[in-house]
Design goal:
60 residues, 3 strands, 30% helix, three-stranded antiparallel β-sheet, alpha+beta
Length: 60
C-alpha cells in the first residue's frame, strides 16, 4: 500500500496534471490518501512526483 500526500498546489499547473492529481483522490495541500501499489498508481505518481510525498504503508 502507498500513502500519497499532496505537497504543492495545482494552481497554474497544466490540465492533464490537475486531472491526474484529482484521479488520485487528492483535493488540497496536505491531503493524504492510501492506494494499492499497482502499475497504474505508480505511473500517476511518476507523472506528478514533484508535487507529492509518497511512502509505503503496511496493509494493516
Amino acid at each position: 500500500m502507498l500513502k500519497v500526500t499532496l505537497k504543492k498546489s495545482i494552481i497554474g499547473k497544466p490540465e492533464k496534471m490537475r486531472r491526474v492529481i484529482e484521479s488520485l483522490g487528492l483535493h488540497r495541500i496536505r491531503h493524504t490518501v492510501i492506494h494499492k501499489d499497482t502499475p497504474v498508481i505508480r505511473g500517476m505518481i511518476h507523472k506528478t512526483s514533484h508535487m507529492l510525498e509518497v511512502s509505503e504503508v503496511s496493509e494493516e
